Amino acid sequence: MEHAPLPSGWRRVSLGDVAEIRTGLAKGKEVNGDAVTLPYLRVANVQDGFLDLTEVKEISVAEREVERYRLQQDDVLMTEGGDFDKLGRGCVWESPIPTCLHQNHVFAVRTDPDKLLPRFFAHHAASPLGRLYFLSCSKQSTNLASINSTQLKEMPVPLPPIAEQRAIAAVLSAWDRAIDQTTALIAAKERLKQGLMQQLLSGKRRLHGFKTAWKDRTFGSFISESRLPGTNGAEAKKLTVKLYGKGVIPKQESRSGSAATQYYRRLAGQFIYSKLDFLNGAFGIIPAELDGYESTLDVPAFNINDGIDRRWLVSFVSRDSFYTNHLGLANGGRKARRVNPGDFVKITAPMPEKAEQTRIANAIEVFDRDLSSLRQSLTAIKRQKRGLMQQLLTGQVRVPNSLLKKGAKS
Fold it and tell me: Residue 72: what pLDDT?
C-alpha cells in the first residue's frame, strides 16, 4: 500500500514496534494441571466499537495460564475474521468483567502507552485507512475474510506526538458519544412505538372519542386475491416482501429466473404477503414506484376495498402476536411451511371502524416519521465522523492548539 506523506513531527511505524499482539485461548485445548473456570470473550462479544456482553460464556483453563490469556485494562480487542465490513472490528477493553480471558479468534493489542495510546489506535483501526489495510492483506473467501497475528503486527500506524494522539482520540470519542446517544434514542422510541402499537391494535387502549365496540370481521370481507397474468421468470421485474412489516422492495437476483414460471402483475396499493414467510411477518402494501412489478403465486397480492385503512391493516398483521397465533394455518414441511390465501382470508379478528383505524394509523405514522428522522441523523453523524477520521488520522486536518494543550496536560 502506498501512503500519503505525514505532517512534520509524525512518523509511521509497524504496530508490532509499539504494541504486543496477544493471541487468545483455543477452545477445546487440553487442560494440564489445576483448572479454573473463567469467563472469556468470543467473536460474538466483540462488535464494531462496542462490546455485547449479553451472553458471556465460560471456559476451563490451567491456573498457571490465566495470566497469559487474561485481558488487561485498555487492551484493544480485534477480531480475527468475519464479514468484509467487520474485519478487524474491535474496541477498547475497560474491564467490565474483573478477570476475563479471550478466545484465539480475538486478538488483544496491548500498546506501549508512551508511544501509542489505545484509543488513538482503536480509532485508526476503525478508520477507512485501517479497514483498507485489513482488506488488502486478509485471506478472503466468499463474503468472509481473516487476518493473522503477523499481518496485524505489520499494520502501518501513524504516530503523532502523544498529546496530539490524545486530542484526536478525544474529538473522535465525542462523535462516538453522539452516535451512541442517537442509537439509544432510536431504540427507546422503537420500544415506545411497539408498546403503543400493541395497545392500540389490540383495543386495550382506545383513542379519544372512540367507544364503539370492535366487531369480528373476516379478512375476506375487505380483501380479494388478484391474479393478473404477467410475464415469465426470465422477463419479469420482480418484487419481494421484507420480514416484520418492513416494506415491499424490488427483488435482487444474480441470475435470470426460469422462462417456464408464470408471474403475475402487482399494482400499487395492493396488500401483499409471502406464503413462505407469513410466520415472520412478511406483509406490505405495494408502493407507487413498484406498480406493474410481478411475483409468483408464492407472493400473493390482494385488492383492498374502501372498508379498511390499508396502513392499519399492515400494522395489524405485522405484529408477532398476530402471525404467531396463526401457526396452525401453515402447511408443508418444517422448513417450507406456507400459508395459502384461501386460509388467510378466512381469518376472523376483532376490528374497529375505519375512522378509528385511520386515527390509529396516523398515531403510528408519527412515530415512524420521528424514527426516520432519527435514523437519517444517525447516518449523517456516522458519515461526518468517517470524513473527520480520514482527515485527523492522516494529519490533513490538525486539532486546535487549545485541544493539544489539554492533551499535553492529561
Answer: 96
